[in-house]
Write a structure and sequence with these properties.
Layout (H helix, E strand, L loop, with lengths): L15 H14 L1 H8 L1 H9 L4 H33 L3 H16 L11 H24 L1 H4 L5 H28 L14 H4 L1 H12 L1 H6 L10 H18 L5 H31 L4 H29 L1 H18 L6 H29 L5 H13 L4 H13 L2 H5 L2 H12 L8
Length: about 425
């Protein structure tokens, strides 16, 4: 089976190395949401910097809600401005730098409640920059990939991303966290073995992002003054927003559906490690092992379903994925043992990968060439406009019910609503 991307019809007529370098950026940046937002640092905050798991869950959820609001307000505007200027990579580089530096800052977050505010500031800053960088990275996909291969290339990139998250988790486990003898002994009393995960993720990002900047071509720059770019970008964004209900109904419906089901995905990512630590009393090592299994499952799902994306369409791929998430996500709330939780978590992972990769390829198929970054900005908005709702609901219900399990029951509801909204959508032909 030939896994090399077919680039013969790429709009920029780029080489295979350029396409693979673009895909490899997912390997570079995925450890941030995996290690920082979902597993190691999230669980560290909940267990070492908070009075109890419920309070930690609420505070972590509030921080992610703030970052989601920041992305929702700025992503469409920045995307519209970037479309006027043409280039994507300067934006990617700037936001990547902020993300990496914010991750490194967790080294100074000691296991004391007095450092909780620093941790929350770092995650708001880093997560916002990470999501904004994705706007411009995603906008490059239809510029380097043939239309008939959008699903495969998007899926392979997601697969590499999960592999990157997996590799980083394994290294963090083996080098620092392993209770039976880490290769790099650090002071466990001050949680150095956990805090080091932040700088490790930041350096990983910087190192492995380089191929994108070295080998993947950017869109041609346009000679336009910054003030003019901002004015023209805002005008274009306003025109697009006005036309969504009438002239671009398919885009509007897709963005609305994605807004709902992505809120469920983001909430699942945000509280996966927190739920494992609080409800199942999983140790950091157990959480890392669970994260490794989840990444393997999600990466395989993204790669395997990438062929389905190009063959049966992105919409059908998303429908299948959401149906799987609803079933497994409901079942996981009823189990009591760590083994059952782990098995169902892996099943969820299989459907998480294609839900994400097929959503990106769907947007790439729908977006007109002249407004790709703008529409991927709206795509980011659709993933963040209600991003406060999921974490806020989980945090509030968890506190009111005094149960993480009851709070997490909110998540499958988002998948059901998103699926209902998506079903009438007509997908454009490849």
């Amino acid at each position: 089976m030939n896994l090399a991307p077919d680039i013969s019809e790429s709009p920029l007529r780029v080489g295979r190395r350029a396409v693979l370098s673009w895909c490899f950026y997912d390997w570079a940046n995925s450890p941030y949401p995996t290690v920082v937002v979902t597993f190691v640092i999230a669980a560290y905050f909940t267990t070492a910097l908070s009075a109890d798991p419920e309070t930690g869950t609420a505070l972590w959820g509030a921080a992610l809600s703030i970052s989601g609001l920041a992305v929702a307000l700025t992503a469409p505007v920045l995307g519209a401005v970037a479309d006027q200027a043409g280039r994507r990579k300067p934006w990617i580089a700037g936001f990547a730098a902020i993300t990496a530096l914010s991750a490194m800052g967790f080294w100074w977050v000691k296991p004391d409640p007095s450092y909780a505010m620093l941790a929350l500031i770092l995650v708001v800053l880093g997560n916002s920059a990470f999501e904004l960088g994705q706007v411009f990275y995603n906008a490059m996909l239809p510029e380097i990939a043939a239309r008939a291969r959008l699903g495969r290339i998007s899926g392979w990139a997601w697969g590499l991303g999960y592999a990157g998250g997996l590799a980083c988790l394994v290294l963090v486990l083996v080098l620092f966290v392993n209770e039976d003898g880490a290769l790099v002994p650090l002071d466990r009393n001050s949680a150095e073995h956990v805090r080091i995960a932040g700088p490790f993720v930041g350096l990983w990002f910087v190192l492995f992002a380089l191929p994108l900047f070295l080998y993947t071509p950017d869109a041609a720059p346009r000679r336009i003054a910054p003030g003019r770019a901002i004015t023209a970008g805002l005008g274009s964004l306003w025109a697009t927003l006005r036309s969504l209900p009438r002239q671009q109904g398919s885009i509007g419906r897709f963005l609305l559906a994605r807004m709902i089901y992505t809120d469920g995905l983001n909430t699942l990512f945000a509280f996966g490690g927190v739920y494992a630590a609080g409800t199942f009393a999983m140790s950091f090592q157990d959480i890392l092992l669970f994260g490794i299994l989840l990444n393997v499952a999600a990466g395989l799902g993204a790669v395997v379903f990438s062929w389905a994306d190009d063959r049966i369409g992105a919409k059908r791929t998303i429908v299948i994925s959401l149906s799987g998430l609803i079933g497994a996500g409901t079942a996981i709330l009823t189990v009591e043992s760590q083994t059952a939780f782990t098995v169902l978590g892996c099943i969820i992972g299989v459907f998480i990968g294609p839900a994400q990769s097929a959503s990106r390829s769907m947007m790439a198929r729908l977006a007109p060439a002249q407004s790709r970054a703008e529409l991927f900005g709206l795509y980011a908005l659709s993933g963040k406009a209600t991003a406060f709702a999921g974490p806020a609901l989980v945090a509030s219900i968890t506190l009111l019910a005094g149960s993480q399990r009851v709070g997490m029951a909110v998540i499958p509801v988002f998948f059901v609503v998103g699926l209902i909204l998506l079903l009438p959508l007509r997908e454009p032909a490849s």
